[in-house]
Amino acid sequence: MNAFTRVLAVGALALVASSSVAQAESMLFMDNFIGHGMGELYTGPTSGNSIAPFTTESSTNNGRVTLYGGGLLMDVNTSGSYNLNEANLVLNLEDWEGIRVTFNHRSYDDEVHGFATDESRVGGSGDQDAGQLNPFVDHSNADGVAVSVDGENFVPIWTPSAGESNSNWYNVQLNSVDAAIAQALNLAGGNGSLSTVTFRLQQYDNYTKPSDGRGWDWVTIYGTEKPSGAPGVVPEPSSFVLLGIGAMGLVGYSWRRRKTRKVA
């Protein structure tokens, strides 16, 4: 192998090796609602108690989304009428993949309402549609977490387990949220964007804490920075690999030339 071919082959192998090095996971967002948050994409207050940067919405005037001693509480002001509470967080994830979500959660004797196909469901005692994670448009009378890329088409990524009507605080870890985000992009039909990914926490029921209601705390989102030049797309065969193949071809060519000369 001559010097030029040797350098080219070694360089190609080095490029292939360096391209396979895994990126380190980063904490993109964390909020404990009491004190302050942090992270690469955190834009809320750095001290004091605040719901920001979450925005909240309730389906009735009786809905309540408020800070309390254990984080963020969702219930109603006055018992008796069913209400859907939502807290939305919008993040720019254009440069990130491998999204992972963790949070602490508890139920105050709140029955589980899964993400059913009937988004207008109202009332009923006991768990309903537990475990169901059906996509929905705009709103769904359910308990859990959902994601969207257009603020309209949502894909649920978590709902409490059946029988979890009353619980102590427990930790939830949702790995590989990328698939749900990709599904949300598909449902948006070209109108969505990774620059406006919405994470929605939601609760649905009709009584005040401690007869109903849900608590949320330490909402944390992790991600890995996308490789430069290939955001969110499975790449075609790498030019580095093609370069390596070319180098091996040059090696063979050089060897054949030397062998031919010896025969001559």
UniProtKB/TrEMBL annotation:
<dbReference type="Pfam" id="PF07589">
    <property type="entry name" value="PEP-CTERM"/>
</dbReference>
<keyword id="KW-0472">Membrane</keyword>
<protein>
    <submittedName>
        <fullName>PEP-CTERM motif protein</fullName>
    </submittedName>
</protein>
<feature type="transmembrane region" description="Helical">
    <location>
        <begin position="237"/>
        <end position="255"/>
    </location>
</feature>
<keyword id="KW-0812">Transmembrane</keyword>
<feature type="signal peptide">
    <location>
        <begin position="1"/>
        <end position="24"/>
    </location>
</feature>
<feature type="domain" description="Ice-binding protein C-terminal">
    <location>
        <begin position="234"/>
        <end position="258"/>
    </location>
</feature>
<keyword id="KW-0732">Signal</keyword>
<dbReference type="InterPro" id="IPR013424">
    <property type="entry name" value="Ice-binding_C"/>
</dbReference>
<keyword id="KW-1133">Transmembrane helix</keyword>
